[in-house]
Amino acid sequence: MEAVLSRSVQIFTPTCTHVRGMATLKDIRIRLKSVTNIQKITKSMKMVSAAKYARAERELRPARPYGKGTQSFYDRAEVTQDDSKPNHLIVSMTSDRGLCGGIHSNVVKAVKAEIAEKKVGVNFKIICIGDKTKLVLQRLYNQNMFYSFNNVGKTPPTFADASFIAKTIMESGYKYDFGTMYFNVFKSVVSYNTTAQPIFSEESVATAEKLTLYDSIDEDVLKSYNEFALASLIYYGLKEGACSEQSSRMTAMEGASKNAGEMIDKLQMTYNRTRQAVITRELIEIISGAAAL
Amino acid sequence: MSVLRHLTRTNGLLAKVTREISKRSYADMSFTFSSPGNAYYQNANVKQVDVPSLSGSFGILPEHVPSLAVLKPGVVTVFEEDGAVKKYFVSGGNITINDDSSVQVLAEEAHPVDRLDAQAIRDGLAKSQQELNSATTDIQKAEAQISFECYEALSKALE
C-alpha cells in the first residue's frame, strides 16, 4: 500500500477531483492504453472502408450511364416541373451507417433548406432511404414522413434495391407534381457534391414541351419508360451515395487514426515525464533520509 | 388578312422545323449500352443497333427519329464501326433515342450471348412452363408468363 502511494505524484490531490495534467501514473497508463485501442479500431475501420471503397468505385462506373442516360433524355426533351403545384415529394438518400464525416448531415441539410423554402399550402412528403436521414427528419417533420427504407449501406446497393424503392413510390398512389432526390455525388476520394436531382412524374414527362418530337410514344410506353427511368435514377443515386460514403469514411478514419496517434505521443511524453519525476523524488527521499542519519 | 396570318404562321413553323433538322445533322451515333454490372458501350460510335422492344424489334441507325421504347427480353445486336457484330441478351429496360443522335440502351440485365448456358435455359424453360400451368391467381399467372417469355427468348437467342 505504501509503495502504491509513494508512486503518486500529487499526494495531496483528493482522488475525487481529477485535475487534468496532474494525473497519476496509473491514470495516464489507462488512458494511453484506451487511446491505443481506439487507434487500432479506427485503423482497421480505415482498411475495411478502403477495400469497400475500391469495390464501390469499380461498381460506380457502369452505374453512371444509368443516371446520365436518364438525365440526358430529361434534358433533351426539356421536361420541367412546376414548384407552385401543391404536391411535392422529397427523397433523401443516405445510409444506416455513421462515422463517415458530414456526408449524411449534408443531405439532411439540403433537404431542410428545400423545405424551408417551400411556399405556404404546399403539401410535401418525405421518403427516407437509410436510418441516418430518418432519425433527423422524423423528429422535425413527423407529419410528412411517407416511407423509410433501412438496411442500406451494409452491402453494395443492387438494381433490385432500386427497383423495390421505385416500385414502392409508384404503388404508393401519391401523385406528386414536384419531386426531388437528394444524394451525394462522388467526385474524388476527398470530395463529394450534395446534389438535388429532379424526379419527374409521368404527367410532367407527358406534358413536356419537346416530347412531341419523339416518335411512337403511347401511354403504355411512357408509363413503363418512366418507371424504369425512376428505378435507374434511384440506382444511380444509391451507387453514387455508397461510393462517396465509403470514401468519406476512409478519410474520416484516417483523420481519426492520425489524431489518436498525436494523442498517444503526447500521453507517452507525459507518462515518461511523470515516471521520471516519481523516480527523482524517490531518490531525493532516500538521499535526504540517508543524510539525516 | 387571314391568309397573311396563316402564311406567317406556317412560315414560323417551317423555320422551326428546319432548325430542328439542321440541329441534328450529326453523322455519328453516340451509343451507350449498359447493365448494372457492366458498361458495354459509352458514347461509342457504332453503325447500327437492333433492339427488341415491346412494340416490336427495330434497328437504330445514326439520325434515327427521336423515340422512346421499352426493352423486352431478347437480343440486342450491335454492328460496330469496324464491321464486328456483337450480340447481347437483355431482360428488360429502356431505349432512348434523343434528337442529338445519342442512343441509350439501359438494361436491367445484359450479357453477351456466348455466355449463356444452354442446359440451364432448357431446365428453366421447363420449370417456368410448369409454373405457368399450375398458376392459379392472376398475379402468379402474370409472373409465370413473364419468366416463361424470358426463357423462350433466351432459348431463341441461342438458336
From TrEMBL, chain A:
Its main location: mitochondrion. Keywords: ATP synthesis, CF(1), Hydrogen ion transport, Ion transport, Membrane, Mitochondrion, Mitochondrion inner membrane, Transport. It is a peripheral membrane protein. It is found in: Mitochondrion inner membrane. GO terms for cellular component: mitochondrial inner membrane; proton-transporting ATP synthase complex. InterPro entries: ATP_synth_F1_ATPase_gsu, ATP_synth_F1_gsu, ATP_synth_F1_gsu_CS. SUPFAM superfamilies: ATP synthase (F1-ATPase), gamma subunit. It holds the Pfam family ATP-synt. It comes from the Eukaryota. GO terms for molecular function: proton-transporting ATP synthase activity, rotational mechanism. F-type ATPases have 2 components, CF(1) - the catalytic core - and CF(0) - the membrane proton channel. CF(1) and CF(0) have multiple subunits. Belongs to the ATPase gamma chain family. This is ATP synthase subunit gamma.
Automatic annotation (TrEMBL), chain B:
This is ATP synthase F(1) complex subunit delta, mitochondrial. Transmembrane segments: none annotated. Subunit delta, of the mitochondrial membrane ATP synthase complex (F(1)F(0) ATP synthase or Complex V) that produces ATP from ADP in the presence of a proton gradient across the membrane which is generated by electron transport complexes of the respiratory chain. ATP synthase complex consist of a soluble F(1) head domain - the catalytic core - and a membrane F(1) domain - the membrane proton channel. These two domains are linked by a central stalk rotating inside the F(1) region and a stationary peripheral stalk. The keyword Kinase does not apply. It comes from Patella caerulea. Pfam families: ATP-synt_DE_N. Keywords: Acetylation, ATP synthesis, CF(1), Hydrogen ion transport, Ion transport, Membrane, Mitochondrion, Mitochondrion inner membrane, Transit peptide, Transport. HAMAP family: ATP_synth_epsil_bac. GO terms for molecular function: proton-transporting ATP synthase activity, rotational mechanism. Component of the ATP synthase complex composed at least of ATP5F1A/subunit alpha, ATP5F1B/subunit beta, ATP5MC1/subunit c (homooctomer), MT-ATP6/subunit a, MT-ATP8/subunit 8, ATP5ME/subunit e, ATP5MF/subunit f, ATP5MG/subunit g, ATP5MK/subunit k, ATP5MJ/subunit j, ATP5F1C/subunit gamma, ATP5F1D/subunit delta, ATP5F1E/subunit epsilon, ATP5PF/subunit F6, ATP5PB/subunit b, ATP5PD/subunit d, ATP5PO/subunit OSCP. SUPFAM superfamilies: Epsilon subunit of F1F0-ATP synthase C-terminal domain (SSF46604), Epsilon subunit of F1F0-ATP synthase N-terminal domain (SSF51344). It is found in: Mitochondrion inner membrane. The keyword Mitochondrion applies. Residues 30-110 form the ATP synthase F1 complex delta/epsilon subunit N-terminal domain. Its main location: mitochondrion. Belongs to the ATPase epsilon chain family.
